[in-house]
Amino acid sequence: MITLHHLEKSRSFRVLWLLEELKETYGLEYQLISYNRNAQNLAPSELLQIHSMGKAPILVDDSLPQGEQVLAESALIIEYLLKFYDNRQQFSPSSAFNAWRDYQFWLHFAEGSLMPPVVMKLILLKAVEKSPFFAKPIVRQVKAGAEKLLLDGNVQKGLQLLEKQLQGKDWLVDEKLTGADIQLYFAAAGAIKIGQLSLADFPNTARWLNNCEQRTAFAKAVELGGKPL
Hints:
Helix content is 56%, strand content 8%. It has helices at 12-26, 74-85, 97-130, 136-165, 179-194, 203-213, 216-225, and strands at residues 2-7, 30-35, 58-61, 70-72. The chain has a four-stranded mixed beta sheet with strand order 2-1-3-4, with helices on one face.
């Protein structure tokens, strides 16, 4: 049995969504254990008992040998599930080199390029919210300076690259939903929301986000685990 340890409003939504796609397509059964964030908006300490990083997602597959059953990191878990449970390659790229290359690029682009500036923007936003009133003007200046110098430009470049990739396409690779779409959705939606950007400026991305959200497995994942953002 597969067990997903899922944290609300986190990257683990990706894995929950993929599990629902696999359940809908193949009848794959799994157990879901959900956790709420603590008072500091962090993952609860219970996750440390499952994996030493104490973060979600964590996947436990008891079909694996003892000592090798616990998997962490969303990209690894997505690749694992597709390799061993996507029997007809419904959510995997074709064997063509271009498809494999694009799939791998967008799978890793999500966390390697797009998420770091988005996370930093979120940290700075929280710093302003949590700072004492007398320090807020200074923290706001630091936030504005960092965003102008380092963050906003990288978010824009990332979204513009995604916008170009989706020109005339419904999905990133092979004209079908793949693990790359599932991995990138959270990062792209987060970039739009946290960056307070208008989807009107990214029509191809807006269409793609809607394609993701209209899938029945996506809706089921929201029902079971809450909205991703």
